[in-house]
Amino acid sequence: VANVTKKPPFVQGGRRAGARPRALLVYPPIYDFALYDLFLKPFALLRLGAWLGRAGYDVRLVNALDYKDRRSIATLGQPKRERWGTGKFFRQVVDKPSLFAGIERSYARYGIVEQSLEERIASERADVVLVSAGMTYWYPGVVEAIRAVRKYHPRAPVLLGGIYPTLCPEHAREVSEADYLVSGPAAARLEEILGKLSLPAVTFNEDEEPVLLPEANWEAAAVRLNRGCPLACAYCSSRSIEPKFVPGNPDSLWRTVREAYSRYGTRSFAFYDDALLARKETALLPFLESLSGSNLPLSFYLPNAVHLRFLDFESALAMKRAGFREVRLGFESALRDFHINYDRKFEPSLLADKLEYLLQAGFQAQEVIAYVLAGLPRQGVEEVEQSIRYAASFGIRVQLAEYSPTPASALWQTALKYSCFPLAEDPLVHNNTIMPMRWKGFTLEDLQTCKDLARSLSSPSVHSPRLP
Ligand code: B12
Ligand code: SF4
Q1: Roughly how many angstroms between the first and final C-alpha of the chain, as a whole number?
Q2: Comparing C-alpha atoms, which of 147, 60, 63 is closest to residue 112?
Q3: In the beta sheet, which residues pair with residue 436?
């Protein structure tokens, strides 16, 4: 009898028929002048992972920003970390791209060493690979990750989504080497792509439930309650990333938090919301109420800041009781005209009342941080100095948020007109460290002076403030 070896029927990517499809999520390394881990997590991928997992996919994550990788520790040393989950990443100084030739700062690759990244990718199997990209100017890490995937999984289709392909789709099409780009929300496009690849359709969930994987939950996790933002500030791209504001489901967030705590002991949670306080009566407040009855030892952080206009005493008190360790506020400027021109966010004279709510609720002044926006097109340094002095005069901490021009924001055309960098050609120069909108009225040296001023004035003493 002839020895017939019967080949198993294969579908896409060499997967045996009937076997669970394998989805590999890849969070790339980052190239930048500086990078601090203020709760930087692959949130979008984890959310997609939940959809894929529910549809029967075997979901695996390769996180290039892992800070516990053994080989990287042996080569580069252990990065300094804080117990609540912030800190440094592995860092290797690399050659600067030629566009940055005149910039006197070192440029670095952040993340696990290349050999570890490749080994992790090689050790996984994949029927489909999903890569997500953060800032537009972080695309070099995306290209590196996709090349590594290609090397070990030449037949696996690679999908790229997130901020970079959403805000710079043409550039991403030319440069990224991905097979499929997803700009903006994933649901419809993902369905279409998976269909084309003869892979099972995913099970969408409107709620912001991420898949819970151990390495995304060490010490800290990112969560999101509401999607999008009801405002449309001229310097922000939120609307093109998520076209409408969708208030979240407090029960679903509570499930996620409880599950992360019981499975992995996660105690710190950072909100990725654009507008956490918007529609708080049906979203944040009920969530905080569920929490306060639970007595779990949890801490909450707001790396993205909240809207001053939506803050009241009730929400301040509920946040304090629930374990918010700090409150970051999107203050931006003390000048009324700034808000009239750019964001209509709030009346700056309201800061005093809003801070009073926070202090009465039990927050210390040093636990309150006001972001002041610096480096907008043709913004003068005096305006930023005034805003720093004004916010700091309440005794709270002040931090600069350095402007990064983003395509699809209302200020983009003005930014193109005044920038001395090729913003439209290469997203690398969206990087706020180089101060893309510098001009004689606000130089790099002025920016440093503002940063020093903010640092020196961020002391706990409380004075009676006066608007400039
Ligand atoms: C959370 C956040 C942060 C966090 C984490 C950053 C990060 N990238 O993870 C922190 C606080 C660290 C941060 C910091 C800053 N941020 Co920020 N941040 C955000 C925010 C609010 C969310 C980003 C995020 O992770 N979203 C998760 C998204 C991607 O998930 P999602 O919506 O579920 O994704 C959907 C789709 O995108 C898609 N998708 C996503 N990935 C993938 C992958 C695949 C394969 C597929 C198929 C689909 C897909 O599917 C999902 C479901 O539909 C955005 C604004 C926004 N609304 O997005 C700004 C934003 C990214 N930040 C911005 C800026 C300017 C900054 C700062 C420079 C601010 C400052 N001046 O200091 C700093 C710099 C960061 C640094 N150097 O460390 C800009 C981007 C600038 C740029 N050039 O790219 C944004 C867009 C805000 C803006 N101004 O418009 N930020
Ligand atoms: S800057 Fe903040 S308030 Fe303004 S549109 Fe963006 S997310 Fe909304």
Answers
A1: 95
A2: 63
A3: none
> Residue ranges of the alpha helices (H) in 265-373?
284-292, 313-322, 336-342, 351-360
Q: Is the CB of 47 under 6 A from ligand 1?
A: yes
Handedness of CA 374, 379, 380, 382 (dihedral sign): negative
Q: Determine if ligand 1 sits within 6 Å of the CB of residue 159.
A: yes
Mean pLDDT of all residues belonging to the chain? 93
Mean pLDDT for the stretch of residues 353-369: 97
Q: Which helix (H) or strand (E) segment is 129 a member of?
A: strand 128-133
- Which residue's alpha carbon is nearest to atom 7 within ligand 2? 274
- Residue 388 CB less than 6 A away from ligand 1: no
Query: Which ligand 2 atom is nearest residue 235's CA?
Result: 1
For residue 287, the CA-to-ligand 2 centroid distance in Å is 22
Q: Please state the pTM of the whole predicted model.
A: 0.94
Q: Which pLDDT belongs to residue 5?
A: 35
Q: How many CA within 13 A on the CB side of residue 352?
A: 9
Whose alpha carbon is nearest atom 77 of ligand 1?
A: 35
Picking from 302, 296, 298, the residue whose alpha carbon sits closest to that of residue 315 is 302
**Angle ∠(410,412,413) on CA atoms, nearest 5:** 100
